[in-house]
Amino acid sequence: MTTTTTTETNTTDGYAPEQPPRLDWAALAPDVFKAMVRLDAAARKGLDPRLLELVKIRASQINQCAICLDMHSKDALAAGESVERIIQLSAWRESPHFYTERELAALELTEAVTVLTDGFVPDEVYERTAKHFEEAELAQLIAAITVINAWNRFGVTCRRTPGHYQPGQHA
């Protein structure tokens, strides 16, 4: 029997071959990558790490960014998040009892900011979130949601490959 790691392609085990990245944008646009890393670090300041990872996972689910789902699920687990809450994220409206009111407000805002094609961020979503966050923290949350959406677009467009990230690797 042939064994394989996630970096090898093995057709005898039934898994599809790993797709190679389209473009190593970080190496080709290093100033942009470094600016994104700084922006990400600035956006996370003052936010609870577990809440931040839930927001990043939810936006990444919506945007179907496999590399970000891999990274932020692993970072959430490393931060003490439960597998159950991560699994339930894609259906949080059906299982709100897994989350606090504050987390639910953040998830609702995440969806509204991520899916702008549905229209503007509704006043009621913004107001509901504002009840759970101080203004400065709300500004950080909006920044974090915006930054993960930017990362998702780089990941999806350049087809970054999931499965190789180690928790805290980019911390």
TrEMBL record:
Start-end of Low complexity biased regions: 1-12
Organism domain of life: Bacteria
Domain spans labelled Carboxymuconolactone decarboxylase-like: 30-111
Region feature Disordered, mapped onto this chain: 1-20
Pfam families in UniProt: CMD
Alphabetical list of InterPro entries matching this protein: AhpD-like, AhpD_core, CMD-like
Entries under NCBIfam families matching the protein: ahpD_dom
PANTHER family to which the protein is assigned, alphabetical: 4-CARBOXYMUCONOLACTONE DECARBOXYLASE FAMILY PROTEIN (AFU_ORTHOLOGUE AFUA_6G11590) (PTHR34846), CYTOPLASMIC PROTEIN (PTHR34846:SF10)
Protein known as: Carboxymuconolactone decarboxylase family protein
Protein source organism: Streptomyces composti
